[in-house]
Amino acid sequence: MHLDAQPLTPDTFAPYGRVIARPERERDAAGPGWRWWAETVLLAGDGRPFGVGYLDLQPGDGRFDWAERHMRTQEAIIATSSELLVYVAAADHPEEPGRLPAMERFTAFRVPPGEGIVMDRGVWHGAPFAVDQPSSAIVLILEGTGRTDVTLVRFDSVEIRA
């Protein structure tokens, strides 16, 4: 099986969460060499602080054989230096956290550098892929999520075609 990665737009990613990109609205402030838009996307918390994680990514074969989800936590992934590929599936069956959707329900997206995504609670996902060069990503996630709010499922390998 394979997934064809599609361009990231607010409409195409809406079933999974929100896109992080330069807003189309008027900026909130500006100065020499900078422009600022406040609160472009909000992440809901539960009293825990958000942690900022750093992903160092090397190009690979674009195959994945696992997905995870967080039932109480939103997660943001921001591409820093080059395009990334992310794969996601809808947050179906919250009453059965380990119930993986059919593989046909997964979608892959191209995330341009300087943009990102915020996944809703319960959305299936995995680590992003660097496309054709080493890259990095910033990850925002509530403290302790990896210890207390993660369901991981393994399956037959799936290829993402960029």
What does this structure look like?
The relative contact order is 0.33. With 162 residues, the protein is mainly beta. It is globular and about 50 Å long. A hairpin with a 2-residue loop joins strand 4 (29-31) and strand 5. Strands 2, 9, 10, 12 and 13 form a 5-stranded mixed sheet that branches. A 5-stranded antiparallel sheet has the order 3-11-8-14-6, with no helix packed on it. Helices cover 5% and strands 45% of the residues.
Percent of residues in helices comes to under 10%
- Shape verdict: globular
Give the ordered list of helices and strands: EEHEEEEEEEEEEEEHE
| Largest sheet, strands/sense/barrel | 5 strands, mixed
- Tell me the fraction of residues in β-strands, as a range: over 45%
**Could you list the spans in which at least 5 consecutive residues all have pLDDT below 50?**
none
Instruction: Please give the count of helices.
Output: 2
Question: Structural class, from helix and strand content?
Answer: mainly beta
Strands, total number: 15
Gyration radius over CA: 16 Å
Mean pLDDT: 92
Distance between the termini: 14 Å
Q: Can you tag this structure with a few keywords?
A:
162 residues; mainly beta; 15 strands; 5% helix; globular
Give the helices and strands, then pairings.
Blueprint: E1 2-4, E2 6-7, H1 10-13, E3 17-20, E4 29-31, E5 34-36, E6 50-57, E7 63-69, E8 75-79, E9 84-89, E10 107-111, E11 116-119, E12 124-125, E13 129-130, E14 135-142, H2 145-148, E15 151-161
Parallel strand pairs: 1-15, 2-10
Antiparallel strand pairs: 3-11, 4-5, 6-14, 7-15, 8-11, 8-14, 9-10, 9-12, 9-13
